[in-house]
Amino acid sequence: MDVELGLTALAAMLSPTTLSFSVFSLVLGERPRRTGFWFFAGAFGATLLVGVVAAFVIGDAAASSKPSAEPKTWVAIVDVVAGALLLVLVVRALRRPRDSTRTAAAIDRMSKISSSPVIAIVAAGATLANPGGFIPIALKDISQLKPSAGTFIALWVGFALVSLLPLLVALVALSVSQGWTAARLQAARGWLERNARNLAAVIIVLLAAALLRNGIVALTS
């Protein structure tokens, strides 16, 4: 479960959508630190809220009650279904040609957001840079570890920080050297447009393989 949770956090971190909008929030506005900070606050706050609620609502519901720690049947089924869906999504994403109009629309959207009031930037971060579809998988992974509410929240904070790590590192770098960091972010923007999808696909395939392996072994043992 530790490996699966780590792969889930990496997949969320390398999501092309999250990475692209995070970079756009820092390079398209006249006040990148302001925009980036509130964008991060929105994304982290929304993700953290989900984990805090889940710590008390879900808790250790997915944890095995058997000494062998064999996953529950419904958990194994969720693993197989989630793994299969991830593989389908990767194949569809890789077969779909890059759409320059979507990138242009995202740039236009973030350009407007960067000059918006704080509440709009926070809302944009909450909706555009959260871990999205990886949240249910991460919740399941943590729940399987049979955590207390405090441990659940601590693990979730770690997951949220890893999923937003590129944005957090960029914000720190901007605080140290804004000019140098801005130039590197502009270069990263072009690299992401060319390679982010392939990089994310590799991690998601590894995550799908782990989910399928765990689910199939549990169902057939």
Walk me through the structure:
- Helix content is 81%, strand content 0%.
- The chain is mainly alpha-helical and 221 residues long.
- It is globular and about 55 Å long.
Describe this structure in a few short sentences.
The chain is mostly helical. The protein has helices at about 1-15, 15-25, 30-55, 75-95, 100-115, 120-130, 135-145, 150-165, 165-175, 180-220.
List the helices and strands and how they pair.
Elements: H1 2-13, H2 16-27, H3 32-57, H4 73-95, H5 100-114, H6 118-128, H7 134-144, H8 149-163, H9 165-176, H10 178-220
Radius of gyration: 18 Å
What is the chain-wise order of helices and strands? HHHHHHHHHH
Structural class label: mainly alpha
Mean pLDDT: 84
Q: Characterize the largest beta sheet: strand count, sense, and whether it forms a barrel.
A: none
- Please indicate the percent range of residues in DSSP E strands (runs of 2 or more): under 5%
Principal-axis shape equals globular
Count of helix runs:
10
Instruction: Say how many strands there are.
Output: 0
Low-confidence stretches: none
Q: What percent of the residues sit in helical stretches (DSSP H or I)?
A: over 70%
**Amino-to-carboxy terminus distance:** 18 Å
